[in-house]
Amino acid sequence: MNYSLDFFLGGGRRLPSVREFFAYIHSVEGRDVVYNNRVVGKIFMHPAMGKIYVTLRDYDSHVLKKWGTIGVSRDVIKRLILEGVSYVVVAFRDVEKVVYTTPQKFMDLGKSYWNKKEGDMQLHLPLSCFKSL
Q1: CATH topology of domain 17-132
Q2: FRET pair for 120, CA 20 to 30 Å: which of 5, 74, 78, 97?
Q3: Which pLDDT score, from 0 to 100, does residue 13 have?
Q4: Are 129 and 100 in contact (CB under 8 A)?
C-alpha cells in the first residue's frame, strides 16, 4: 500500500484501489437513490472520499458513444448537491474501472441531452472530466 506523508500526519487520506473500492461498496450498506421508480445508485459515507454517490454501469452500454460521455439525470445531480455529496462515482462492472468527479462539475460542464427512453433530461460529461481511481 502507498501512503502519503499526509496520511501519517493526520492529513489527507489515500484513495482506495479499484479492488478495494468494489470490496467496500459490496460490504457496506448504502442508501438507495430512487428516480423514476427505480434505484439509480447509492449514497455511501466513504472513509477517504466522504459522502459519495455510486452508480454501477456497464462500460459498453452506458458510455454514450456519440460524445464519449457518461450521463446522469439532471434531477439526480441537483439532489446530490442539496444532500452534500462530494463525488459522483461511476463504477464499471464489466471492465473493473472506477472514475469519479464532483456533482458541481456535472452542473457546470455537463452537456444536456434529452433521453427519450427514460423521459428525462440528462447531463453528460466527457470521460476526460473524470479522474480514475
Answers
A1: Trna Endonuclease; Chain: A, domain 1 (3.40.1350)
A2: 97
A3: 66
A4: no
The length of the chain, given as a count of residues:
133
Q: What is the pLDDT of residue 120?
A: 83
Query: Can you tell me which residue has the cell 446522469?
Result: 72
Mean pLDDT of 104-110: 94
Cell representation of residue 123: 447531463
All residues at 6 or more sequence positions from 31 whose CB lies less than 8 Å from its CB, including other chains: 42, 43, 44
Pairing of strands 38-46, 50-57: antiparallel
Cα distances (angstroms) measured from residue 38 to each of 18, 69, 103, 125: 26, 22, 20, 22
Distances 68 to 13, 62, 63, 71, 125 between C-alpha atoms, Å: 31, 10, 6, 10, 8
Average pLDDT, the chain: 87
Query: What is the model's pTM?
Result: 0.85
